[in-house]
Amino acid sequence: MSLVLFGPPGAGKGTQAARMIREGGKFHISTGDLFRGAMKNNTPLGLEAKSYVDSGQLVPDSVTIGLVKEVLENNRGQDFIFDGFPRTSPQAEALEKLVHDMGVSPIRHALFLEVPQETLLTRLTGRRLCRDCGAVYHVEASPTAVDGKCDKCGGETYQRKDDSEDVISTRLEAYAKSTEPLKEYYQKKGLFVAIDGQGDPDRVFARFQPYL
Ligand code: AP5
Q1: Is the pLDDT of residue 25 over 90?
Q2: Which of 68, 72, 140, 180 is surrounded by the fewest CB atoms within 10 Å?
Q3: CATH number, position 45
Q4: Cα 18 from chain centroid?
Q5: How far apart are CA 2 and CA 79, in angstroms?
Q6: CB-hemisphere CA count at 13 Å for 168?
Q7: Can you tell me the distance from the alpha carbon of 28 to that of 56, in angstroms, rounded to the nearest whole number?
């Protein structure tokens, strides 16, 4: 079975998806990671996405849906964790159609990570990532052992450009306008599950267990 993991920026979707993958059996699709990877490599997709990602706007639906379709085509027969996709109603409708048309394992739950706004700000402004392996840290909640150096691969850690306070507010606006309505969309489909995203990551992960 496949899962949709959604919620506001900084709710902990990537952190929880990493734990789900460690349990095995699912293929992780994070549209945010795919856009950042393409930007790093200066591919045509990266060049197209860059101005949207850096300014906190959503990348146009046609581009995002095309990207997900391509990943699904290349990974047929997998159970998926959709992380940060869908983020708009047209994306949700497109995903439903893709799942049907491509014989993807059906979506069992749309898991919504619930976190208060002040916590989101703390998480986003304190986030650091490894430039080489993408590992995610937080300056207070999960710091690296050596400042600026990834514990896993020794790579340099950095702050995402869109984790500055002005871009975060644009991301939160985009979330409220386009993604929050998906709660109702999935409630109507009987797939919606709200998960409390507060507390340390292992405690949050335990709340996901009944749905994995
Ligand atoms: P994306 O990368 O998906 O960003 P996001 O949704 O804003 O989510 P984040 O990656 O910021 O946060 P997260 O929820 O994964 O939190 P994390 O686990 O890292 O998208 C970036 C951009 O790409 C978008 O703005 C848009 O431009 C574009 N894009 C992507 N998908 C798109 C789509 N479908 N359509 C159109 N455009 C799209 O945690 C955050 C921090 O908190 C970390 O430091 C972590 O260590 C810490 N933390 C996590 N959990 C806990 C906890 N329980 N306790 C304490 N600290 C915690």
Answers
A1: no
A2: 140
A3: 3.40.50.300
A4: 10
A5: 5
A6: 20
A7: 22
DSSP state of 177: I
**What's the total number of domains in the chain?**
1
Q: Whose CA is nearest to atom 39 of ligand 1?
A: 12
**Inside any domain, residue 158:** no
pLDDT (mean) for 7-27: 93
Give me 111's structure tokens: 């898991």
Residue 142 lies in a domain: no
Q: By residue range, what is the domain housing residue 21?
A: 2-116+165-211
* Nearest atom, ligand 1, residue 91 CA: 34
Between 115 and 77, the higher pLDDT residue: 115
- Through-space distance between the first and last CA atoms of the chain, rounded to whole angstroms: 9
Q: Which residues line ligand 1 (CB under 6 A)?
A: 9-15, 31-32, 35, 52-53, 56-59, 64, 84-85, 87, 91, 123, 126-127, 136-138, 141-142, 162, 171, 200-201, 204
In a domain, 95, yes or no: yes
User: What is the dihedral sign for C-alpha 129, 132, 135, 137?
Assistant: negative
pTM greater than 0.85 (yes/no) = yes
CB-based contact 52:4 (threshold 8 Å): no
Within a domain: 127: no
According to DSSP, the residues that pair with 121 across neighbouring strands are: none
